Amino acid sequence: MTSRLYFAAGFAAAVAALVFAYLLQYIGGLEPCPLCIFQRVAMAGVALFCLIGWIHGPGGAGHRIYAGLAGLSAIAGVAIAARHVWLMHLPADQVPACGPGLNYLIHIMPLQEVVSTVLRGDASCATVKGSFAGLSLPAWSLIYFILLTIGALVGVLGFGARSGSARSSD
Fold first, then answer.
1. Exposed/middle/buried for residue 115 (C-beta within 10 Å: 0-12, 13-18, 19+)
2. List the disulfide bonds (predicted).
3. Which domain does 119 fall in, by range?
C-alpha cells in the first residue's frame, strides 16, 4: 500500500465519522454535548493529519510522523470517548450537575479551564441521547477511535508504507 493510499483511507474514515455526526445533529436532531464536540475535534485532527499525509505522500520517517500525529489525535479521541462512556454509566446520584453550555464557557474562561471543565463532564454528557445495536453513540465513537488508533499504529510501524504513488520508483 502506498503512503498516499494509506492516508486517503484514514482521511475518508475520519471524514465519514464527522459527516455521520453532523447528519445526526442537523437531520436527526441530536444536539451534541460538550464531550461530543471534543470528540469531533479529535476526529478532525485525525482527518487533518491524514489529509496532509495524503497530499504529501511521504515515505519512511515522514509517513511515520504523519501516522503518529493522526494516532495522537485518535488516542485523544479514545480518552474523551472513554470518559464519556464512563460518565454515562455512573449511578444517577454520582452524575455531575448540569453546567453552562460550551459557547458560554469559551467566552468567559481561559482555554485550559474550558478543557478541564468539559472533561469533568456534566449531566448533559451522562444522558444517552442515541444508540445503535445496543451501544450508545459515545461507545461506538470509542470503538471507532480504537480502530483508528490501531490503523495509526500500523502506519507508525511502517507496515506496507511506500512513498508517493504506485508508479515506478526513482
1. middle
2. 33-36
3. 3-69+82-156
* Cβ contact 71:149 at 8 Å: yes
The pLDDT tens digits of the residues spanning 139-152 come to 999 999 999 999 99
Q: What's 96's domain CATH number?
A: 1.20.1550.10
Number of domains making up the chain: 1
Identify whether 16 is part of a domain: yes
Spatial CA neighbour of 85 closest among 137, 34, 33: 137
> Dmax of the chain from CA atoms?
65
pLDDT in tens, 76-99: 999 999 988 988 887 777 766 666
- Residue bearing cell 519512511: 60
**Strand 135-136 to 131-132 pairing:** antiparallel
The answer to whether the beta carbons of residues 94 and 123 sit under 8 Å apart is no
